[in-house]
Amino acid sequence: MGMNRRRALAVLGSSTLIAACGTRRQPRPVPTGSPAVPSAPPAATPAVPPAPDTRTPEVAAASGPSPHLVVARGESPAAITEAAVAALGGMGRFVLPGQNVIVKPNICVAYHGPEYAATTNPEVVATLVRLASEAGAARVRVMDYPFGGSAKDAYAISGIQAAVEAAGGEMELMARVKYEEVDFPAECRDIRRWVVYKDALEADVIINVPIAKHHGIATLTLGAKNLMGLVENRNLIHVNLHQRVADLLAFFRPALTVMDAVRILTDHGPSGGNLDDVQQMNTVIASHDPVAVDAYTTRFFPFADVDKVAYIRNAADMGLGSLDVEALEVQEMTV
Predict the structure, then answer these.
(1) Is the confidence at residue 62, as pLDDT, over 80?
(2) Which domains does the chain have, with CATH numbers?
């Protein structure tokens, strides 16, 4: 198995553009000495290169080049998730045999089942767990730190625990002893140090699987904001929220983002609780580019855009992904 995220963060050089997934994502380095002076932000949103194609020549010839972003629609959450990942080149593009994988859904509360669209769809999560295992991952863990109720209860009530365990994955209760304060990369524009879950540093691959929903402060909680579940002192993230969420994305660098829009929460988020606020979309959006996924997802919410959900624009300005979805190769499919 290759260098884990902790070692990579300690020794790899920094880049201002998103590292597209080939055999694995390279996480952002944590400076080990005096931080470098950040370069000036680019004048325009930088282009994000397509992810390297690691498929065999036979598969590539049969299926053509991988799109930048995939939008899959259909009645089965498992089927559309599997189809979206396959269209991107397969899970083997993101996970290598022997790697340690963390799948990060949104399991924010222990109050409601998946029909309330407050937590990620269990079938979407379980499908990603299964695909990572089939790609040869040595270990696949699923975790979140709920703000409402206990993690144990939230894992069960959301339906995610049963689905993940049936798929061969592990549910991990995030222990406080596993958090530590670390330096953030010099290009982060606000956060210099924060307390993060150290297993997220040691994982080879992070797969981010948020659910698309309204948020009373951020307008929407999408992929970048879902990474708040890997840090402590989350109330302080809400100080300069949109920049600090973008800084979290620069730090964790998920290899793959799969947006659950099977059901979306259109109001009273993030915890919900009223089925009248839930809209059935039967959709997932997937890419190596987390900014493009979040930008595309805003179109499901008439009250939102990338300026109102400003962490999306901030992340693009930092070179973490592409804001201009119309300029990207997007494959839409019905399964």
Answers:
(1) no
(2) 69-334 (3.40.50.11440)
With b for 16 or more beta-carbon neighbours within 10 A and e for fewer, the 290-300 pattern comes to: bbbbbbbbbeb
Q: Is-contact 75 281, C-beta < 8 A? A: no
The predicted-structure confidence for 162-205, as pLDDT tens digits, reads as follows 999 999 999 999 999 999 999 999 999 999 999 999 999 999 99
**Residue 77 contacts by C-beta under 8 Å, 6 or more apart in sequence?**
121, 123, 124, 127, 260, 262, 282, 284
Q: Find the range with the poorest average confidence among 29-43, 185-199, 254-268, 315-329.
A: 29-43
By DSSP bridging, strand 170-171 and strand 179-183 are: unpaired
Four-CA torsion 95, 99, 100, 102, nearest 10 degrees: 0
Lookup: tokens for 10: 């300690």
Model pLDDT, residue 25: 39
Q: What is the mean pLDDT of residues 111-136?
A: 97
Specify burial of residue 131 (Cβ count, 10 A radius: 0-12, 13-18, 19+).
buried
- Per DSSP, the residues of 76-108 read -HHHHHHHHHHHTT-GGGT--TT-EEEEEE-B-
Please state the rounded mean pLDDT for residues 191-220: 97
Could you count the other beta carbons within 10 Å of the beta carbon of residue 111? Answer: 18
Q: In sequence order, what are the residues at sequence separation of 6 or more whose Cβ sits closer than 8 angstroms to the Cβ of residue 201?
A: 4, 5, 6, 9, 27, 182
Q: Which residue has the higher pLDDT, 317 or 44?
A: 317
- Whether omega before 35 lies within 30 degrees of 0, making that bond cis, reads no
Question: Residue 278: beta bridge partners?
Answer: 265
Residues 6+ apart with CB under 8 A from 308: 219
